[in-house]
Amino acid sequence: MIGIQFLISSLIWFLIGGLMAAAMRWQLAWPWSDMPILGSWLFEGEGGQISPEYYTMLVTMHGSVMVFFVVIPILAGAFGNYLIPLMIGADDMAFPKLNMLSYWFMWPAFVCMMLSFAAPGFGPAAGWTSYPPLAVLEEAAPGSGLAQTLWLGGLTCVGISSMMGSINYITTIVQMRAPGMTFFRLPMTIWAMLITAILQAFALPVLTAAVLMQIADRLLGTCFFIPEGLMVADALPKSGGGQALLWQHLFWFYSHPAVYIMLLPAMGMASDILSSMSRKPLFGYRPMVYSMLSIAGLGFIVWGHHMFVSGMQPLVGAAFMLTTILIALPSGIKTFNWLATLWGGRLQLTTGMLFCLGFIAMFVIGGLSGVLMAVAAVTIFLHDTYYIVAHFHYVLFGGTSLIVIGSIYHWYPKMFGRMMSETLGKFHFFTTFVLINCVFFPMHFLGAQGLPRRYADFTHTDSFVHLQPINEFITYSAFALVGVQVVFILNFFGSMLFGRRAGNNPWRANTLEWVAPSPPPHGNFLAPLEVHRGPYEYSVPGRAQDYWMQTDSELSNG
Amino acid sequence: MINPIHSLAQFYLPPKGSTFADVTDPLFDAILWISIVSFVAIVVVMCWFAIIYRRRPGYKPLPSPSHSTLLELIWTIGPTLILVWIFFQGASGYSTLRTPDQDAELIEVTASQFNWKFTYPNGDFGDTLHLSVNQPVRLQLVSEDVIHSFYVPEFRAKMDVMPGRRHSMWFKPTLVGEFKLFCTEYCGDGHSKMVKNVIVHPEPWDEMMRKYVRWKDAENHPVANGARLYNVYCSGCHSFDGSAKTGPSFKGLASSTNREFVSGSPLTFGGADSDEWKNYVSESIKRPDARIVKGYANQMPSFEGKLSEEQLGYIMQFLKAVDGGTYSEPPKPEKTQ
């Protein structure tokens, strides 16, 4: 149930974050023109235009909302919470109260963020990375006042929530597996959730500490991140002695592993959907597990690649470059294993499966542009341009979000007991897939021309005027992309009422969640389970059925 | 060989403006082509599998392995070799980009919210970066407030400007012409306007310095000096064409006879030669929070100690010239690319 609560609240924030992106695109395509519909209501004072302060707030909040309120909670909070007990055969999470607390700690965060919109200066505007001194000194930017303090408060609550969640996931997966469910019989989703939870448990304390230090700098007069001798607006001189660079180290020490927190669960779920819909065992189960472990391990020692142009000693930079390039290896192994899973299968191209295939293509683009960006000699040129915007949207939107949507189609029957419409689903997939590429692919061209990110207006120098048609095209596509999500919303809520009844195992899949009734009652399973085999025994020769559930005893022959 | 992507030049890399382009561009091309080939290979195989192995009446799947050590070794070792090559290329290029030329001339770059200031070896400073072609330069970067970043796309050069730390960067421009310098580290609401000109002159360094970087003996000395000070310190927030930026425009300031404030009583002046006007301008620069012009917020830093009384005088002369119509922007050198 907590999982569904996380799911619904994250989806609502997804919509809010998406609308913010649409507003940004409006400004970038037609700078300083009146925004239709909402403009006259939001910006009465400016005659319906987006002001520069408002644009920077949008950039900040779009990033913060999508990372902290959508992707992380929907993967760990929603799917982690929902699938972990079901897939390992447990009746609930190890600590149900902690679980509930982890959801309800999101609400203070939601409230803080909502309130920060009402604070002076439209809202926090220091970027989702919140780099000091811009974020620390109230005088540095209109949004660096109360709004920024609220933003930091919100982030602290998200951190507490995720911490409670990850402790719960680790304990549940280690302690509550059904009899016979050994570690190497766990579905990939569960492996991914376990590794993600460990990543989070190690990385998050660093961010929380850094956020508290930034709060102390703002409210208690400390100077962790404030160097000497600043002359920001009319601020009183601070004693200084801090280092702005320190924040970048602390922030990216969390936020780079966070990229994998936002990706590994998606990879896990993709593996499960691909295998069951290909009616074939997952190719190379153990290499898949080991490659996830090595992605997680390497993920801890690559944070410096966000700081190649911060004045880093080149030898240190070279080391970070090496570790970053190495991550391409396990990622490549996973991709090849997914392809080999399709090889010789019997593919059921359901909506969930289509989203998985789309994910692979998008992830490959995002991964390969990642290799390009890992090379310092190239990335000094590309850093902070639209190339990086294209790169991380391919990974996070083209990659993770496609899997999130695909997983909703795949596990919806279990969650609500009814099937979603496949016709609407396929329409949703094809339009979304095409439009994502229309929005994000041209950004590579913008980046190669050196277009800097986080600019409210490119038209006041003639350097980038020739790129304006591309910006307009991206904006039209982005509006269409937001627009077609209406189909998904209709399908999501409509299917709750009118969907075909699903039964326990509509996809004829092996894993334990399909043993439970749909939707699962309190306690999940009707009878105690015993696990006899791994999760991917599809199309076993000599069996009448092409699937073999993990609970079936050796003798049963479908 | 002609790279077909280069025919889409205006959507590809900008013109090569420094020696760094010879490091960055070939590497970019190489990795891009490796990526394109890998992407096409993966997606073609995926689509082909999705078509031939899709479930359909009468189709029986053939047995296929769920594990193959040979295949797994191939797709682990193959990419490893490519990645190792990429790393060594990238690392050697990186070291070129970060090893300054011994003959580099030193220029100090001071960034502050929405302004750039360049101080040359002869002590002159201005808001335009003058360089000579094929003369390597080393820039010492200092920020007065938040983090900024120095970026000229044509030079393929970028470095953050950190408060409280000095970094330096170097490059050797190879293309004569006028380029734009962008701030690429988000620095506040004026971030996208923190753009200045970089001019690479064909003259050798000493001749270029004599011709373009001479402040004290400039013609129309006080107004020209005032204009330079304006460009360096004020232009980020104050226009002189009447448009409102972060602060009020300077247009009409010298000819105005009164000024209204957020709080306190309005001031009346007897023109730009009156003591009231001069005192007001001086106060606004040294203690900007004393009186805030109606319609604006208290956002301006104090310039107390940063500008001498002499320099204040130049700025006032400049303001008068703007309103008197005797100031016009100096003609820019022609673009020769």
What does this structure look like?
- The complex is a heterodimer of chains A (558) and B (337).
- Helices cover 63% and strands 0% of the residues of chain A.
- With 558 residues, chain A is mainly α.
- Chain A has a single domain, classed as Cytochrome c oxidase-like, subunit I domain (Cytochrome C Oxidase, Chain A).
- The two termini of chain A are 32 Å apart.
- The mean pLDDT of chain A is 90.
- By secondary structure, chain B is an alpha+beta fold.
- Chain B folds into two domains: 10-53 and 100-214, Cupredoxins -  blue copper proteins (Immunoglobulin-like), CATH 2.60.40; 218-323, Cytochrome Bc1 Complex, Chain D, domain 2 (Orthogonal Bundle).
- Classes of the chains: A mainly alpha (558), B alpha+beta (337).
Mean pLDDT of chain A, to the nearest integer, reads 90
With helices defined by DSSP (H or I, 4 residues minimum), what is the helix count of chain B? 6
Content-based structural category of chain A? mainly alpha
CATH superfamily of the largest domain in chain B: Cupredoxins -  blue copper proteins
Number of domains of chain B: 2
Arithmetic mean pLDDT of chain B: 85
How widely separated are the two ends of chain B? Answer: 23 Å
Overall geometric form of chain A: globular
The major β-sheet of chain A equals: none
